[in-house]
Amino acid sequence: MSLVMGKPSPLDFPKLSNDYLNSEARLFLLDWDGTLTAIVGDPEAAVPTAADTEILEELSSNPKNDLWIISGRDSAFLQKHLGSLGSVGLSAEHGAFVRLANHTDWQSISVPGWEDTTWQETIMAIFEDYTAKTQGSWIERKSIAISWHYRNALPDIGILNSKECKDQIERCILQMPSNLEVINGKMCLEVRPRNLNKGVIVRSIIMSYGARTAPPDFVLCMGDDVTDEDMFKAIRSSSLNSERCFTVSVGQGSRPTTASWSLPDPGDVMDLLGKLAAAPTKDHSEL
Fold first, then answer.
1. Which of 105, 182, 244, 246 is surrounded by the fewest CB atoms within 10 Å?
2. pLDDT in single tens digits along all 287 residues of the chain
3. What distance in Å separates the CA atoms of residue 129 and residue 146, rounded to the nearest whole number?
């Protein structure tokens, strides 16, 4: 299957709902920021509403559904705001930490090279320099990665400084023994170990089916930025039935993507999930 990036088609809801109703093992892989909730100026304000929580609870309580939220957020944020969703699997920092459904403890995932954190102080110094010269920007230091956010900066200054910052970090990385990469997220830069991405955890989830049950016959994977492309690639390059795998780019705009389908914004995502959660039978007209 070709994984060439391009413009996705608007989501075919009749096909998706028909495949959903006629499936027995469903896997949901959902990003958080920009997908299940809108991007906001204050990241701490990107929390689920009571209606969002009700939809996710109802969808994950269906025994045919295996629902994961796969986020770049740290485990503390996910546990605080989504930890009450016991039947939902949670993945933090692009797969570095996971909390399995119906479990309370968080586990770290071993990724070659990520134990070495000696690089972090050097990267922090660069980010601190650009934070000082970019009003409205801030640094998010996680366990495994470091992000610099400039969404609240003046657009022209933020974009210009982010390009300069990325160039400086890329030159710096070449001199480091650690296997690092710098990623352009949505109005942010993130430096992380090269082998740490959402595709790793998605492949791990898919492989776990072989050890416990038949593979999913319906997959819905949704995300909004470049870090979610690793999820889309993992799904589309897997051995799962591609006709029943829906990779959906949310708010895609003009950015090329490997996703096959698109939805305009997080409101459409929650509307879709609400309809699926409420589906009582295989009768297509019920959706």
1. 105
2. 457 788 899 999 999 999 999 999 999 999 999 999 998 888 888 899 999 999 999 999 999 999 999 999 999 999 999 999 999 999 999 889 999 999 999 998 866 666 678 899 999 999 999 999 999 999 999 988 999 999 999 999 999 999 999 999 999 999 887 789 999 988 999 999 888 899 999 999 999 887 667 899 999 999 999 999 999 999 999 999 999 999 999 996 667 899 999 999 999 999 999 999 998 755 444 55
3. 14
In terms of pTM, does the model score above 0.85?
A: yes
Residues whose CB is less than 8 angstroms from the CB of residue 115 and which lie 6 or more positions away in sequence, other chains included: none
Length of the chain: 287
CB 285 within 8 A of CB 260: no
